[in-house]
Design goal:
With 245 residues, the protein is of the alpha+beta class. The chain contains 6 helices and 13 strands. The chain is globular and about 50 Å long. The mean pLDDT is 93. The strands form 4 sheets. It has a 7-stranded antiparallel sheet. The two termini are 31 Å apart.
């Protein structure tokens, strides 16, 4: 998926958790092989060329395409699984894969799990007694500094996803034009229960721009967000303060 995944796993029976971790890593490599748009023999590449139907692909392909369609519907088209007219679900695969890996480790008995996929994080459980997971949000205007710290206190699952230009440049596409999104934003961080959606919503909101993006994010249930503009303005949803600490 063109990025690094890292795991922080706490508690559980060591052998069972180790086996689950090995299986999670294997599944991430499998997801990359199935969904890569750069590998000519991946199922997605073959699907685009018409060599396979969705029904002939692994069941996960239909699942991810359905998630992408739902993200496009909820965002009124600001999130898309198409690039330059071709099917490209990579915008939703990473969050979905990281979330799935975290849940598999929790199911294996781990009491605390953090899966980080390229800076987007799915948290489950707790890292220790009376200690919540905490995630730092990078400041795009001050490299090495944090704009905020998100806490998972009081919830069993929390995801934190950021879309922006600080790390990878202008890589987010405006689905209406097919070109790089031109907005007043440098970064959008979305906080919610599921990384699948947090990642997609951050991408869509970035393409919208700060005003429309903030209004839309405010309308979504169980979602909070932090938006940083090129003018060094910080805007956030009304309930974000409850998730900081």
């Amino acid at each position: 998926m063109g990025t690094v995944f890292s795991f922080d796993v706490r508690g559980g029976e060591p052998a069972a958790v180790r086996t689950a971790l090995e299986e999670a890593v294997t599944q991430l490599h499998r997801v990359d092989a199935v969904f890569s748009t750069y590998r000519e023999e991946s199922q997605i590449s073959r699907l685009v060329r018409g060599e396979l139907t969705v029904e002939e692909c692994d069941p996960e392909v239909a699942e991810v395409l359905a998630l992408g369609a739902e993200a496009e519907r909820v965002s009124d088209g600001w999130f898309s699984t198409r690039y330059e007219g071709r099917l490209d679900p990579t915008g939703i695969v990473k969050g979905w894969a990281a979330e799935r890996a975290a849940l598999s480790l929790t199911a294996a008995g781990a009491s605390g799990v953090s899966v980080n996929g390229g800076g987007d994080v799915q948290l489950c459980g707790v890292p220790g007694p009376h200690r919540p997971w905490r995630v730092g949000v990078s400041d795009p205007l001050r490299p090495g500094s944090l704009a905020a710290v998100v806490s998972a206190a009081g919830v069993d699952r929390l995801a934190v996803a950021t879309s922006g230009t600080a790390e990878r440049g202008a890589h987010i596409v405006d689905p209406r034009t097919g070109r790089s999104a031109v907005t007043d934003l440098l970064a959008v961080t979305v906080v919610g229960p599921r990384l699948t959606w947090a990642d997609a919503w951050a991408t869509a909101a970035f393409a919208m721009g700060s005003r429309a993006g903030l209004d839309w994010l405010e309308s979504l249930p169980d979602v909070e967000a932090l938006l940083i503009t090129a003018g060094n303005e910080v805007r956030c949803t009304g309930g974000l303060a409850q998730r900081l600490g």
